[in-house]
Amino acid sequence: MTDQKDLQTSRRAFLSGSCLFLLANPFIGRTLRLTADDGEKTDPVLRIGLLTDVHYADKAPTGTRYHRDSIPKMQEAVSKFHDARCNFVVELGDFIDGAEATSVEIRNFRKIEAEFAAFRGERHHVVGNHCVWTLTKKQFLECCGQKQTYYSMNHGDFHFVVLDACFRKDGVPYGARGYDWADSSIPGEEREWLTADLSAASKPTVAFIHHRLDITGAYGVKNAPDVRKILEDSAKVLAVFQGHNHLNDHKEIGGIHYTTLAAMVEGAGKENNAYGILEVFADWTLRLDGFKKMAKYSLETRKAARV
User: Fold this and answer.
1) pTM for this structure?
2) Which of 45, 69, 120, 205 has the highest Cβ tally under 10 A?
3) Burial, 301: exposed, middle or buried (Cβ in 10 Å; 0-12, 13-18, 19+)?
């Protein structure tokens, strides 16, 4: 196993303009190496459009966040998703920026949702803390047209899980200004659901979440070790894709790859856009083709057994 300190140093050196390769067996432990050559591969069986932290609002920039620029950035991403013929797309939370009035958040949500809905296919929303600043989760679901904030689905030979960490550590859901953004947790009821869902799943699995499951501190889910144990014990989860932290990052913990994606809102103009297309291969390889500010990653699994 590569030394973690050396891995982090190498990862930073290779992150910009390169691919990170993770050669792994999802059932008998993982080994890691770095290379800049992606090599030849067969066509993917699935393509998934990914973006995160859009933070759209009709207001002036706040620091490095150019909220209005998320409109043309979203248009560019959706066009690329169409060109790639993505099977579905996922936004990983903080779709809108928080506002002081519910009516403003709803108006902002509807405006950016109209751009996201230009993708003529299946779309998924992961709830982020900014999505439910003044909105309740019920209002969030009404805005995006979903029935639940955590759920799963199958596409071909793969299983996908959407998770919701917008709960306080006491289990109270975020919404209506009733939370601290740094206090995030996945409550017992959702963990029980996740355990049962993965137990019933018969396919290798990929998970999506807004908050980070691989770190401690303000950006991390407070009971992340409990959640990671559920994912690890299932022996079915290949990778987790997450946002919230506005940067590119990768960690491997307990045989699962945790990939954090750069935020769309950061920086002015489309030259500072960030989005990607996740390619899923029959041999369980996951390759993220990141565009503009989003890094490129390849997470390769040597398929030695089936779930």
Assistant:
1) 0.87
2) 205
3) buried
